[in-house]
Design goal:
Elements: E1 10-18, E2 26-27, E3 31-46, E4 54-70, H1 75-81, E5 85-89, E6 92-99, E7 105-108, E8 120-122, E9 136-139, E10 142-145, E11 157-163, E12 166-170, E13 178-187, E14 193-204, E15 220-226, H2 230-234, E16 241-245
Antiparallel strand pairs: 1-2, 1-13, 3-4, 4-15, 5-12, 6-11, 7-10, 8-11, 9-10, 13-14, 14-15, 14-16
InterPro entries: UCP028589 (IPR016893)
Protein name: Major tail protein
Organism: Marinobacter nauticus (Marinobacter hydrocarbonoclasticus)
Amino acid sequence: MAYREESYIGNGKIWMRRRGSADPFREVGNCSALTLGVTTEESSLPNYRGGGGEANKRERITAVALSVTAHDFNAENIAVGLRGDVSAVASGTEASEVHPGANSGLIRTNKLIDTSQPVTVTGPSASPSHTLGTDFNVSAAGIEVIEGGAITDAADVEITYESVATDVVDALMNSGEENEIVFDGLNEAQSGAPVVVDVWRAKAGAAEELALIGDEYGALTLPYAVLLDTAKEAAGESGYFRVHKKVLS
């Protein structure tokens, strides 16, 4: 067969779902890297008969790893990286939410405040009424008490506000779910020739960090251990992953 140049520049979409689910795959989002790696363990028999070198060598595969670098910080991706659970909280009116008073600092509300809507802060039983800009300011996290204002440590405050709908990720709630992963890719070096990869069992690990302050666009690295699927192996297929690529002409 004559030589055919097949260089590669890849991009595409990454899809995943919980292993064993009949649900459609969800798109992970904008990802700058997808890497599969194989770790091996070597055992070598030296040549003792003179001249050095090796008389024999064994190489055993010990692990298969997958890493995704995602740039969409949606709740599902954060939950994967933090081994968390996702729950949805609806928006609504939070009436007379009671918190201990403070003469400075942040009073954290139970839900996120819709800062585009009015917020009322009073003492117990709606008296006295505190003034925005004089006694407090408002952020999504709660009420920022202005030092020297009328809010003190002596009494509770009642806060009435409109809350925004939120996705809540409770971190470190599970041992990492198993996913099926599909890479629906294109080789830009070959006029967009398709490259599709199926990973049967990918067990999520914990992200090393969740960087929340910075000057650059954030990146969330999602590590996976690729585990053996014995059913695929019994069917004569790879028990780990499979690569499909278009035959180039």
